[in-house]
């Protein structure tokens, strides 16, 4: 069964929305220095700002994300996109820590279900052997977006103040929402094509079940270690979004062009990793039909590499070498976030993927609540800010290394599904 051409239009819109989604997250890091000065915030208070985004993010991804199994995903995606717009246009008016925290909480609540809803949409529009590139493309948008937008937003912030960045992203988000309202469709059935969410034959649960029936599957060692490994990625990415710009400014003393490069290059490398490893994983899956060789090994190896790179970034005194490893670490870490949905799609049928994906995102992203707070505490109460950052990076790299190895070793499907891809399904993109 060939992938419908319209599937790529849907994917393109999801990729663009992913770009908006991630830039909305990282703006707060780009404005950290001027905003902390204007509101007179300490490092520990800024840690609360960074953490607050994920307070409702986890709950909404769990509750609303689970609804993607049975609700109209086009309407759901429309509503959460509308919430993103409201926050971008209201944030410029904040004048206190409490108001800033509220805007971050609302934005987190709106962005929490995005991954689960996107996963459900991709499950309807793409066959299984395209899931790697489908999820990878959405996360490619989430990484290339900041790589493109960061230098532009930094220039905008330097020229017109931090508020201009939120207004600019609000305008861009409005344009993408209008595009989705015009071109977005609920499933291929609307264009008279085959719905891929009917492909249930290799899943451990083939029918839509209640949360009570579904719970035991979420307590399996496979699901737990997928969550833990992805949690490491969310931990590092939240630190990257909240603290990297301040670290490059205050510790490395970068400004101007160097600051733009230091902030944007990690996202650019992460975008390259998304596509390269997604294509590699899909190729391995088409050749072997083996989820472990195609998805699990790739995700495990890249997580271990990320941990090593983060440790080396903190170990070298040379700014050039340190920045090189700071560029590599998030890129390798983020690979699990594109491959985990594909792994879950193998373990759970599309009729239950909303529950699985929503729970996975809620639990794994919960680490993003702790990471900014821990870094803020260490930076404020260590002997110096540099020592505080160093402690934070050391702890992060150690945890990532251990969890990456455990994930790589332990996650093993009970029954390998030897999927045969028909020649007519092997469409070259």
UniProtKB/TrEMBL annotation:
Matching Pfam families: MFS_1 (PF07690)
Bilayer topology term: Multi-pass membrane protein
Keywords from the named record: Membrane, Transmembrane, Transmembrane helix, Transport
TM segment ranges: 46-64, 76-95, 101-122, 134-154, 160-183, 222-243, 263-284, 296-316, 322-348, 360-379, 391-411
Domain Major facilitator superfamily (MFS) profile: start-end pairs: 10-416
SUPFAM superfamilies from the UniProt entry: MFS general substrate transporter
Cellular compartment(s): Cell membrane
Predominant subcellular localization, coarse grouping: membrane
Domain of life: Bacteria
Protein name as it appears in the record: MFS transporter
Organism this protein belongs to: Peribacillus butanolivorans
């Amino acid at each position: 069964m060939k992938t419908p051409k319209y599937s790529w239009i849907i994917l393109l819109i999801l990729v663009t929305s992913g770009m908006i989604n991630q830039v909305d997250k990282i703006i707060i890091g780009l404005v950290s220095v001027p905003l902390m000065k204007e509101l007179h915030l300490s490092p520990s208070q800024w840690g609360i700002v960074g953490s607050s985004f994920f307070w409702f993010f986890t709950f909404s991804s769990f509750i609303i994300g689970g609804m993607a199994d049975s609700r109209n995903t086009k309407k759901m995606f429309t509503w959460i996109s509308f919430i993103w717009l409201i926050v971008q246009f209201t944030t410029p008016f904040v004048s206190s820590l409490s108001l800033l925290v509220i805007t971050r909480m609302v934005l987190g609540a709106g962005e929490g279900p995005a991954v689960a809803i996107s996963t459900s949409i991709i499950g309807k529009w793409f066959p299984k052997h395209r899931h790697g590139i489908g999820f990878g493309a959405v996360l490619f948008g989430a990484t290339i977006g900041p790589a493109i937008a960061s230098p532009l937003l930094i220039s905008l912030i330097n020229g017109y103040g931090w508020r201009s960045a939120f207004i600019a992203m609000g305008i861009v988000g409005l344009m993408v929402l209008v595009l989705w309202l015009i071109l977005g469709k609920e499933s291929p059935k609307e264009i008279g094509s085959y719905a891929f969410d009917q492909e249930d034959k290799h899943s451990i649960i083939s029918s839509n079940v209640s949360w009570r029936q579904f719970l035991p599957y979420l307590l399996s060692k496979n699901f737990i270690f997928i969550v833990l490994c992805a949690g490491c990625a969310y931990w590092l990415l939240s630190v990257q979004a909240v603290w990297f710009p301040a670290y490059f400014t205050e510790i490395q003393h970068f400004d101007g062009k160097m600051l733009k490069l230091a902030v944007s290059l990690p996202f650019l490398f992460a975008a390259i990793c998304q596509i390269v490893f997604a294509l590699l994983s899909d190729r391995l899956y088409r050749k072997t039909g083996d989820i472990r060789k195609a998805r699990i090994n790739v995700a495990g190896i890249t997580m271990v590499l990320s941990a090593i790179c983060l440790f080396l970034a903190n170990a070298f005194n040379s700014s050039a070498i340190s920045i090189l490893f700071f560029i590599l670490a998030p890129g390798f870490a983020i690979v699990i976030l594109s491959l985990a949905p594909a792994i879950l799609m193998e373990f759970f049928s599309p009729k239950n993927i909303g529950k699985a994906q929503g729970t996975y995102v809620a639990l794994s992203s919960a680490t993003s609540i702790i990471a900014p707070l821990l870094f803020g505490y260490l930076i404020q109460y260590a002997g110096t800010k540099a020592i505080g950052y160093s402690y934070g990076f050391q702890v992060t790299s150690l945890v990532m290394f251990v969890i990456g190895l455990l994930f790589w070793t332990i996650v093993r499907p009970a029954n390998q599904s030897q999927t045969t891809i028909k020649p007519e399904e092997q469409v070259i993109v």
